[in-house]
Amino acid sequence: MAESSSLDRPALLVIDVQNDFSLGSSPHAVPGTDALVPTIARVVSGFRAVGLPVVHVVRLYLADGSNADLCRRPLLASGVPLVRPGTEGSQVRTELQPTPPFTLDHESLLAGKPQPVGPNEWAMYKPRWGAFFATELEAHLRMLGVETVTVVGANFPNCPRTTIYEASERDFNLVVVADALSRAYPQGLDECAGIGARLLDTDELLTLLDGRVPGAANQSLRLEM
C-alpha cells in the first residue's frame, strides 16, 4: 500500500529561463530548453492559479565577467553580452511572464533585492550556480513560511541541481519536476531522489495543485509515495 506523505507550504523556483539561455535563435541556448518552455509555463501557471509563491531566479553577467563563475569569465571579458544587465537577452521568457509582464530591474537585482513582479511572485538574481549562494533567497522563503521548494528550469546539471542540493542543506523539502528541467538525466535525478527529493512530472504536480484552494498558501500538497 502506498505511503502518504505531505509536502507543506510549497514555492516554485524557476531557474535561469532567460532569453539568452533558452531561445532557439540564441547562440548560447541550453539544448532542449526552448522545447521545454511550454511545460515550465504550465507549472508556473499552476502555482499562480492557487496563489503559491513563484521566484524567477536569474543570472546577470557584467561586461567584465567579474560576477560570473570562473569558467565563464573569459567568454564575457571577450565582449560576448551573455545575459548582460539591461539587454533583451537577460529577460525572462515571455511565456513565463505574468500579466502585465515585467522587465528585470537589474540595478535592484544586482544589489541583492528581490523584485516583485506579480502577486506572490518575484525575480531574484544569483551570482553563482546555486540559487541560495550569496543571496537572500532562504530568508525570503522563510519569511513567506515556505517549507517545500519545487524546482524547474535550465539547465539541470548546473544551476537547478546545485540549487536542489543547497535547498536540502537548508532543510527544505524538495520537489523536482523532472520533465520541466532541461538536460535532466536519469542518474542525476536518481541521485536527487537519494537525498530526499520527490520526483514528479508536470501532470502529477498539476493534479496535486488542482486539489488546493486558491489563496490557501499554507495548505499541504498530499503525495502518494
Mean pLDDT: 92
Total of DSSP H or I helical runs spanning 4+ residues: 8
Distance between the termini: 9 Å
Q: Give the helix level as a range of percent.
A: 25-40%
Low-confidence stretches: 1-6, 221-225
Helix-strand makeup class: alpha/beta
- Strand order across the biggest sheet? 4-5-3-2-6-7-8
The total strand number stands at 9
Give structural notes.
The protein is α/β, with parallel strands linked by helices. The chain has helices at residues 19-22, 33-49, 73-77, 106-110, 137-143, 159-169, 186-194, 202-210, and strands at 4-7, 10-15, 54-58, 115-118, 121-125, 148-153, 173-181, 198-200, 221-224. The strands form 2 sheets. The protein has a 7-stranded mixed sheet. The protein has a two-stranded antiparallel sheet with strand order 1-9. It starts with a strand and ends with a strand.
Can I get a quick summary?
By secondary structure, this protein is α/β, with parallel strands linked by helices. It is 30% helix and 20% strand. It contains eight helices and nine strands.
